[in-house]
Amino acid sequence: MNLGFGAAATLTGLLIGVLCSLPPLGLALKHRLYRPALLTLAACALGGFSAGLWGGALMLVLMSGVVISYAYVDREDPFTSRASIDEVDFSESNWEFSLRKMAALGRTVRASAHALVRNKAGFLGFLGLVFFFVMIVFGPLFIEYDGQPHYYDRLKPGAKTLFQGPSKEFPLGLDWQGRDVLSHIVYGGKNLIRTSVEAGLMTTVIAVVLGSMAGLLGGVVDQALSALSNFILTIPTFPLLVVLAGIITFDNHTYLALLFAALYWPTLMRAVRAQVFSLRERDYVQAAVALDLGLPHLIFREVLPNMISYIVVNMIFTIRGAMYALVGLVFLGMVPVQEPDWAVMIYIGRTRQVIFNARAASMLLSPIIAIALFQLSLVLFTRSLEEIFNPRLRRGL
Amino acid sequence: MSEQPLIELRHVYRTFKQGRQLIPVLQDVNLTIAPNEIVCLVGESGCGKTTTGKIIAGLLPQSEGEVLFQGRPLESYRGKERAAMRRALQIVHQDPFASLNPAHTIGQILSFPLKHHKMVSGRAELRRRIWELLTLVDLTPPGDVVNKYPHQLSGGQRQRVSIARALTVQPKLIVADEAVSMVDMSIRVSLLQMLHDLRDKLNVAIIFITHDLALAKYFAWGERIAVMYLGRVVEIGPTEQVIGNSAHPYTRALISAVPEADPIRTRSKQRMKLRSEDIPKLTEIPSGCAFHPRCPFFVPGVCDARVPTLGAAEGYAQQVACPPLTEGLGLREYEAAAEAPVAG
What we know:
The structure holds two protein chains of two kinds. By secondary structure, chain A is mainly α. Chain A is about 70% helix and about 0% strand. Chain A folds into two domains: about 5-75 and about 85-120, no CATH class; about 140-390, MetI-like fold. Chain A has helices at about 10-30, 35-70, 95-120, 120-140, 180-215, 220-235, 235-245, 255-280, 285-290, 295-330, 340-350, 360-390. In chain A, α5 (about 180-215) runs antiparallel to α6 (about 220-235) and α6 crosses α8. Chain B is an alpha/beta fold. Chain B folds into two domains: about 5-240, 3-Layer(aba) Sandwich (Rossmann fold); about 250-345, no CATH class. Chain B has helices at about 50-55, 80-90, 105-115, 125-135, 155-165, 185-200, 215-220, 240-245, 250-255, 265-270, 325, and strands at about 5-20, 20-35, 40, 65-70, 70-75, 90, 175, 205-210, 225-230, 230-240, 310, 320. Chain B is globular and about 70 Å long. The interface of A and B includes residues 79 and 305 of A.
């Protein structure tokens, strides 16, 4: 039995989630923290239900932190006491130490949640993303994939015709083969979104690694990398992508993402490089040099934490760009057509002359609106991400 | 000085490249700092105070000359000795808003060096040491700041954290680069008092860099002051002497320009008339004594001919780089009429 992602959207997943919620739930009830208890139950059940054991375990850790951070407030921490140094006992057991760390984690989670909710636009974007997530994960529970052409049975007298507009039975109408458009919307987002996210992640990783190398090492490395990025930037990327996609057959979406990353990293890399250059001259970096804290500390503790919001936000924008490029490729027919896919729906709409058929508007408009809404959610969500990752904007708890 | 100096600068030069031009920021700077001493570096902006501080802290290599730490050049230190030397020299920056990483809490900021250099063993000792350091810089009770982020603290508090961070590695010398100039007036005195106390308690030398002569006078009373002008030290000596019986015309001009708290006194105060208000550019440093185009006691043929070096002058206990004084000519008001009228 698959308890990992395979358990998602099944009763097993729900069970895993509920089981995962038990430890923090018990702790919360013991401390009479009813609201956190309710939140814990909901979060863990959802986590387990949507991502099996992985989601359940993640929620178990996070919610334990949250509950402990509520319960820990009254605990005796030597640092909260106002006694003199001789009266304070600084020793703590491993158990107390892990409690303190969990409480810190919980405070971070709570602060992030606050930041997420506080920005209205960002929260709206978050809700949009949740909507698509729910649609992709839970949609298949309620809507069956309608892949077979109903060309003949729906041509019979009295039956529904092809290219039908929205109706009660088929909320988004029927497509050129008489299939339910709604089912294609529900099933068609997964691959496109996954490929875009993969492309965005790869681009970001390449850009951050090369950019910080160029920025921190400088000299020849910087010159070589800058020259390379300048060279790639001068190439009209999308036409090249089209040509390459024509030469190579992409039977695997990961290759497509990799190709995108290979062509689109320079923009972000240059931005990261500039950031590193600017951060490198900050006083606190100089102080860390004077304190002789070493290069790993400089990169991971001084420079990266101050770039993380910038990097994450740019990653989101790269995901956006990747999605447009992918849709463009499919629209031009440069990628093997694989249903169900939002982009393929647009492609078929174009090749089947749907644009000239008013009744078929929903077949073409539905994927376009889905893509646009997803993109909008992404862009809005970056507002919240900025607040979450920026310690200055985060409210202290 | 019988004791071995902690830091010694010998004929230190520093140039910066700007495009194709080389800008001499420091020229022939000589300075010795004894252990547990306070030295104030005073001068207007652009005179090379901060560059000197960075070179002393080992954050910037000199272009020429030698920087000796406990008798040996900084570059000759290797391995463990180098790490120890690196830790012995610390710097506190001017801007309390830029000198602390906004991503970490105060506790984390202090724990990084303590953990990395294994200054403490175990968590209990780490926490005890952080508590100690925070009380040392008067951030009490420590529990109020330890879990806060830098942006939640005031400028003065941040500067205290900055100092505490420098103290984590038990330095022998702290370069305080304009450490109080961005802090509220009312906080300054307590910060300076704290630095003095730290010097006494922890046996650390302090180089205090400032553009504010009044501040230097307060902080370095009983210690030494070095006055810098356009990349050179023009006067150095005991504070009482440099302030009370200043030798170099530039120092005199600085002192006469210090405003008093009493407006009537400030207005009635005799200002020294400079021949020119403009500070020369670093790319066009005047020949001889760099101050001569502005100096009211200019002696043609002496001041613009030779580059003056620090030396004793009659009637002064401090060292001064002013040819008329060191060569015993005395200072006489320069007659503007004697200057040949410039055509055009």
